[in-house]
Amino acid sequence: MSPETAQLAVSMREVRAVAGLSLAQLARRTPYSKSSWARYLAGTQPVPRRAVEALCEVAGVRPDRLLALWELADARWSGRARATPEPPPEHHDGRGRPYVWGAVAALAAVAASAAAVLLFTSDGSRSATAGATASTFTARPGCSGRSCDGQDPLEMGCGGQQMVRTLAVRTVAGGRRVQLRDGTACHAVWVRATHLHLGDRVELTLPGAARKEIRADDRHDLDAYLATPMTGMSPAQDPGDARVCLIPADGPRVCFTG
To answer: What spatial distance separates the first Cα and last Cα of the chain, rounded to whole Å?
Structure first.
């Protein structure tokens, strides 16, 4: 396995782990099978670009960093990264001893490649040393504050690693799990739920904002992560004032705040 392939596989596994996605969930929510995802995440099979994009969509992260890693890995898979070097020119140092500029250039290229790999750490950040290059891989959500209201947190890239915190979690009868999420990068809140039962509803309210809601309507919703549309906040609003209510189809409602 090449270093480029290994780094891509590691980063894809990190995205999957942070989002809490199983192989079965990836297979249900993308065009790729469980066995394909197992090979992609293990680094044993070249990954289609669209699979990288699909993983980011399902996990709710911006695709910039993973796609940059994919470009490096794809260059290795396709052979573009293995261009045949020209014979190095020989020069003399003035005392009759030859030295090779080509070797110096090769070492510089290796150093540059190593530096490029170092940029792609697990958290995607080397801001203190990478300068403008690292900004290419900085997550940039698609909305902020009130402009996020009613938007899908996955589509807007508001739920990525280090961009969101969980304010409160409740696990209730039947394994239903509900989380109040604060998108710190997007200045918005939403609810993420999983293991809902058919007919369950989850409501999100925040003073001064319209109510948001999700509902488990079919069997595909039962194991998937479902998210309400976001409630965008003004600087004066506190995400801790958000109120979440789970209304089970077969029991009393459960409500909590941040």
So the answer is: 45
